[in-house]
Write a structure and sequence with these properties.
homodimer; 251 residues; 8 helices; 8 strands
Chain lengths: 251, 251
């Protein structure tokens, strides 16, 4: 599996393409619906590009990194080939019945063009339709990262939801904190040591074990005062609901 | 201000007492309602102890680190003395009218007996009833930490609410993620690189700017699928409410 085609030109395709070439895989072609984007990524990887799925070359593997909604449309236009997608939420069944070697190579990370990534530390979740093909995907992933896990589609879907809570929703908590501090001209950066300490605890503890704050202490006096001091109705409601959830979890 | 009395024997009092002695302050006495706890901390600090507030010695400063609910009761039993409390949620007015030099020395951190802390990195939020007394408290805080900020009671209260979102509530998001993964036998540790990457972005970006996930993409298809896959009703509701809040924030 040395010659790979990338279908997609977004953040995941870009980071994967670069990482694969660094590991001596050959990206022989890049596809994007937008010819400009295909060209841009192809130039980075010094390879060919197309915006026509019927013009794909023959490769050892096609990696499909397009938006979840576009995956089945893309697949319907491809001939049988060894293939994998990189999505957390799409099951492996999306490949049936048109492909014989298929699987998933899901890098668990928030890819962001502005932020540099250490790809070797990213967990790769692998699933293949046969043991043999799964083994081939694992081999590729192990070249890219020291953190490779096999996982079925059900596990991967739950992992994706868990990542929404742990990453997207916790980031929104930081965003709300930032807004609250801005009301009183306090810089969000003051919270960074506290945030880092909260994360540091998770290296050796279950999050439930290290929960702190007014809700777990059932300090209704502080909870009430906080809700009174919050101005936005929807943020008041979030404070109340999350506090209730903490209290319920620790009953 | 060399001779200090600690009123309280919990996590904050313990960490502060040790740090103050390391900076050559002298803890001349420890008070706790529980004589055993007073004795335990006094032994750590090699000093005197009491469980009787009328028996406090004369000191340059009394630091009150008791539960928020107990502060006014404790204060009502003390004679006029230079004094500070360590609470984020209690205003400086709690000292009026019985004290002439009073203030707040609030370390912004989750103190936890099991976890070691680097006190020099903890932000200390300082407020004094006069410029002169505030300066004395700042001097003490600067010995303990390189991160000292003056802050009025209104700012400190908002900061405390912000810290609940940024620390307590984000930790609950991790806890929910852990529960979701446990349903499918996936280890929570797989999320740690993603969580760390989410935090790393905050060193150079506002949290609002680096928000990712289905809600900010308004990917209703994924949101709906996630809600369907969550089993607990209250967690479904949290997923929906937080997603709505993200969508609203980014309108």
């Amino acid at each position: 599996m040395k010659n790979i085609i990338l279908v997609g030109s977004g953040n995941v395709a870009t980071h994967l393409g670069i990482a694969l070439q660094n590991c001596n895989y050959k990206i022989i072609q890049v596809y994007s619906r937008s010819i400009e984007k295909a060209k841009k990524l192809a130039q980075k990887l010094n390879t060919n590009f197309t915006n026509d799925l019927t013009q794909l070359k023959t490769a050892d593997l096609i990696i499909v990194s397009v938006n979840d909604d576009a995956i089945s449309t893309v697949l319907s236009k491809l001939k049988n080939t060894a293939i994998a997608h990189t999505s957390g939420s799409i099951g492996m069944d999306v490949f049936e019945p048109n492909f014989s070697d298929f699987g998933v190579l899901y890098p668990l990370q928030t890819f962001n063009k502005e932020i540099e990534l250490v790809i070797s530390e990213i967990p790769f979740c692998i699933e293949g339709n046969s043991k043999a093909f799964e083994k081939e995907l694992i081999e590729i992933a192990k070249k890219l990262s020291s953190n490779v896990i096999t996982m079925n589609s059900e596990q991967r879907k739950k992992l994706h939801i868990a990542a929404v809570f742990a990453c997207n929703f916790s980031n929104h908590m930081y965003s709300i904190a930032d807004d609250l501090l801005a009301e009183k001209d306090v810089d969000f950066k003051i919270l960074l040591p506290l945030i880092k300490q909260t994360i540091a605890k998770l290296n050796t503890n279950k999050p439930k074990k290290v929960q702190t704050g007014p809700a777990i202490r059932k300090d209704m006096h502080v909870i009430e005062e906080h809700i009174n001091l919050i101005q936005q109705e929807d943020i008041k409601e979030l404070y109340q609901k999350i506090s209730n959830s903490i209290i319920k979890t620790h009953e």
